[in-house]
What does this fold into?
Amino acid sequence: MKNKNSPNSPKDISSISMATNNGANTHADFWNPNQYEKFKKERAQPFWDLAALVDWTGVHSFADLGCGTGELTTELAIEKKITIAYGIDNSPSMLKKTESVISPVQFKNCDIEKFSLEGKFATDEQKLDLIFSNAALQWVPEHVTLLSNLHHWLRPDGQIAIQMPANFNQPSHSLAELIARDLFPDRGENFIRKIPVLQPEDYSRLLFELGFHNQIVRQQIYPHLLEKSSDVIEWVRGTLLTHYEKVLSPADFQSFLTRYSERLLQELGDETPYLYTFRRTFIWGQK
Ligand SMILES: C[S@@+](CC[C@H](N)C(=O)[O-])C[C@H]1O[C@@H](n2cnc3c(N)ncnc32)[C@H](O)[C@@H]1O
It folds into this structure.
């Protein structure tokens, strides 16, 4: 992917294995930037709240893992005058927008797990000042291993900043699993979306064990005021339900969505407006 313009051209990371649409890493891409951005303002707020946790003094390089459309990554890199910035995502449709944008960020189609193993930031000179990830690592398994791998790519005083949803017990999330099990009892466990997100205390301990001397781990409730309760369905269609869209045939996904929508609206009631309370976990650490 071309990197237009950039006055400070980032280092090449083409040696990282890329997920492609042909070959062993092939996967159907059900991320849809238009669906995701229906709640653009609400989704952007935690990104900037996460950025506010970082001490930007002396941060010249960073990687944004699961950067999506890259719009926020670009804004952040420009605002903070970052000279070496990478945006990593494995969705071609989300990354598509980056092709038409002038950005100092080097965007790469790459799986975060692969990045964590093959970052190629082995020497002190190559290491990063910051690893940043907003609303993406909940899609990546094995967080103990993941963070243990990622922390090797950081400079001695490097920082890590992660935000993930923590509302998996809400009806919008728990019903998806319930209905998937109900409608498709023979599909086995692998078909259910597994949530790898740990408890806040686990991240605190993990940061400590990995040698992050300073840390903040906190949860925050975002009171998203939606026009009506059925907007919650539109919200999760842009994120959680992409999993079920991926593992089900179009006809099965339609049955799933119909049943899910009915049940969710029974649960939430027909409210206008609707307050969608959304819990998120913020993790920040400095070595
Ligand atoms: C909810 S969006 C967040 C996008 C962006 N960080 C933001 O704040 O708007 C999650 C993004 O993570 C990406 N993603 C999910 N799993 C991934 C993986 N294993 N490797 C790379 N990207 C992944 C998706 O393609 C999607 O663009």
Remarks:
- The two ends are 32 Å apart (CA to CA).
